[in-house]
Structures are given as C-alpha cells and as structure tokens.
Amino acid sequence: MPELRYDPIRSRWVVIATERARRPHEYVQKHEEPKGDPSTCPFCYGNESKTPPEVFVIAPEGRKPNTSGWEVRVVPNKYPALRIEGELKREGLGLFDIVSGIGAHEVIIESPHHHLSLGDLPVEHIKKVLIAYRERIKDLRKDVRFRYILVFKNHRAEAGASLPHSHSQLIATPIIPPVVVQELNVAREHYSRKERCIFCDLIKQELLLKDRIVYEDEDYVEWAPFASAFPFETWILPKKHLHDFALLNDNDLLKLAYVLKDMLQRIKTVLDDPPYNMILHTAPSPHPRPGREYYWSTIHLDYHWHIELVPRLTRIAGFEWGSGLYINPTPPEEAAKFLREAEIGPID
Ligand SMILES: [Zn+2]
Ligand SMILES: [Zn+2]
Ligand SMILES: [Zn+2]
Hints:
alpha+beta; HIT family, subunit A; 7 helices
C-alpha cells in the first residue's frame, strides 16, 4: 500500500510508493551532454575577460585581478535575474504587492578544471569553494536591501546548468523566498511551543531510527528525509546546533567538504552521475526590521542550517502542479540503503 507521509519541515504531504519501488538503474538515462570547449569557455583560464570583473577570488598572492592562476573565482552573472543597482521600493497596487527587482546574482566558478565536477575535486579544494560561499554571504549581508542570500548549484543541463564548466550560483533577494519562509516559520513555531530546535529533534530521532541515515561522522549527518518529495533526495545537517552557515570557521568547512564530497560521490555512483540541484539553507540577513524587532529574536535558537540535494530523476506533472502532492517512487529508506552501501573511492 502506498503511503502518504507528512513532512514536518515543509508542512506538506508526499505520496511514497512502497509496492514497486523504483531502483536506481531504472532512473539512469544515457544522454549526450555538451562538453563545451575550454578555449572559448568563459570559466576557463585565459578567458577571464569574458566575464564581468571578479568580486571574490582565492588565488596565490601576487596574481593580477582577472587573470589566470586562481583556484576559486566569483563573478557577477552576465545575465542577472535581479539587478544590483537601484533603490529598493515597496509599493502596493490594491491587492498586488510590488518590490523593485533589486538583488545580486553571482557565479562561483568552483575550479579552473573544465571537466571536473564539484564532487570530483579534492576535499581541500571543496573547502575553498565553501569558503567562497561563506565570504560572499557575509559580504552581501552588509547590503541592507537584501533579506536573503540563497546559494545553489545546478549540475548538468537537465538541472538548469547553462554552461558545462562546474559552477555554483547565489542570488540575493529583497524578500525571503517562500520555501525558506516556510522553514523559518515552522522552526519558530516549534521553538515557541517546545523551546527546542525542530532540526535538532529530527537529528536525534533519525539517528535513533537509523534506517534513513546515509552517512554520519562526529560533526555531520547525511540522510534521506522521511517525507522526501523526490527519489534519492539527500540532506546534510551539522550535528551541532547552529543557525547560520556564515559562522563556520575554515576547519568546520574542511569537515563539511569531506561530507559533501561523500554525498556527491554516493549520488554519482548509485545513479550514474545524474543531474541534480543542491541548495544551502541558512538564516536570513540579520538586519533589524523596524517595527518587527521580535521577528528574528529566537532565530539563533530555532533555526538550523543545512544542505539539500535533489537528483532530477522525475518530472513534475499536472497532478503535482495542481495538488502540491509529490509522488516519490522510491521510499527514502531504500534510497538511503543504496546510498549507504554504495562503493565509493577514498574521500580525500
Ligand atoms: Zn571551462
Ligand atoms: Zn538545531
Ligand atoms: Zn531546507
């Protein structure tokens, strides 16, 4: 019998097919991915002038800006979804609310290697990518127009990547995106009723039950969520309560890089390098809200940053669109088992 499961974080129901669970090989699709040409790729060495000037870089000392030799490079998106210049205006038009399209849209070029994806980079290098995430979040938070900075990654064209050279992106928005608002509200409500973090509660419960755990070490846990909306959806959470990713030090990020590589390698091995989306959920910008001082007063106690990864294996069709009910053909317990038992190489 299929099961409807309620997601305590997203406050929504998911249909989990339990009878004829789809196995990993049934999702694998062979596709010819455009490989791109390093000589013309704007993210490769020598083509730095093809992107807007860099806003952050990890590079050896003495390197001239916007030349080769860098390890991680962050540039504004050439075709930004929101514009950095301008005044933030909020207006109402009857029932309609309008906020000017102010924001930042940046590209984190993860390495100079045209053919290596994030999960294939050395742990030491992945740490540098995470440092770039942290530094850009910290810098963009200085701009009081931005309420939230979402870091995300689209891997392969089917997941939305427009260039084959491995990169992440971030978008700073003048409002908090709805998916994040939902999480923040749930976390705040849980805290106001119980004086506990809902994510810490979930961690405790999942570690006790064990059947959805993919991997754990001293600092982090990887699991397939109880009400995964998508097959092989996987999350990484820090075991230690912390609301804000930007507060991590370099050593925390090195440990995270290890777990992140572990997750990406498991997904790659089990599903033959599928397209995926990965997102980082962390606390919103801590700017004071005039008249709403209470708004984030418990955020450091109630929210818990995490990383979510969704391999793009199924399509969202009419039923999902119309009902908000997702159908997941692989129970998370089975997905976790495949991922847990995946034979991956050494993580270093
Ligand atoms: Zn390239
Ligand atoms: Zn917590
Ligand atoms: Zn989340």
